[in-house]
Specification:
Layout lengths: L13 E7 L9 H16 L6 E6 L6 H21 L7 E8 L16 E6 L2 H4 L15 H24 L3 H19 L7 H19 L2
Parallel strand pairs: 2-3
Antiparallel strand pairs: 1-4, 2-4
Helix pairs in contact: 1-2, 4-5, 4-6, 5-6
């Protein structure tokens, strides 16, 4: 775990690199393996709470369902290569596929630029730039709010326990700990406490960041 302040980070995702693939292939070429080695070096040097997001894409040739699977296999291949290059498993937050849905070049024919996997630092702060922006006030306090806070607390406790046992996804672990603490305090304040709303805002904010770090 790295003890860094969330306030030091930008709310925007940051690209660590992109690798490309041959037509209808999830195998990496030599030049692309060199790119992954460079990405791995960045990941090992750049200490951050943001999760690393690995996303696979395809061009527009082939069936949509097949392309969705192909994009995921490409993302898996990059993830496995990053791990083999020495990146700790805890540094990789999630892998996913967008298939043919986000073409860099909008053509229906084969296009290498579209056949890619991107590796990025995810977007924790965008989920909640500041707890002060959460739309709650004294009129929000009541049974429904308490139920929501309790639900968030239970989710945070469960995720924290799971991530403690697995030792994976350091960003989500950190955020689950923050959500557990904030939501526990929010639940504990009586309805007439002036701090009930403040910690309710913190609870919702840290819970949103936890979900982002989990890739939800």
């Amino acid at each position: 775990m790295v003890g860094l302040s969330l306030g030091a980070f930008s709310a925007q995702a940051q690209s660590l690199g992109t690798v490309n693939f041959q037509l209808d292939s999830d195998q990496l070429e030599v030049d692309e393996l060199e790119k992954i080695a460079e990405i791995a070096e960045k990941m090992n040097e750049y200490q951050t709470l943001k999760p690393t997001v690995v996303i696979g894409f395809t061009d527009a040739t082939g069936a949509s369902a097949y392309n969705q699977d192909l994009g995921y296999r490409r993302a898996q291949q990059v993830q496995n290569t990053l791990l083999a290059a020495g990146v700790p498993k805890s540094r990789i937050g999630s892998i996913s596929s967008r298939g043919e849905n986000e073409l860099l070049i909008s053509v229906a024919t084969a296009q290498r630029a579209n056949r890619r996997v991107t590796v990025e630092l995810g977007d924790i702060l965008a989920a909640c730039p500041s707890y002060r922006k959460v739309a709650l006030d004294a009129s929000s306090v009541g049974e429904a709010l308490q139920n929501d806070l309790t639900f968030n607390l239970n989710e945070a406790i469960t995720n924290y326990q799971v991530l403690t046992s697995s030792g994976t996804n350091a960003a989500a672990y950190q955020m689950a700990g923050a959500a557990r603490s904030d939501c526990e305090q929010a639940v504990g304040f009586k309805s007439d406490s002036i701090r009930k709303v403040e910690y309710a805002k913190k609870c919702f904010c840290s819970h949103a960041r936890m979900q982002t770090a989990l890739g939800n």
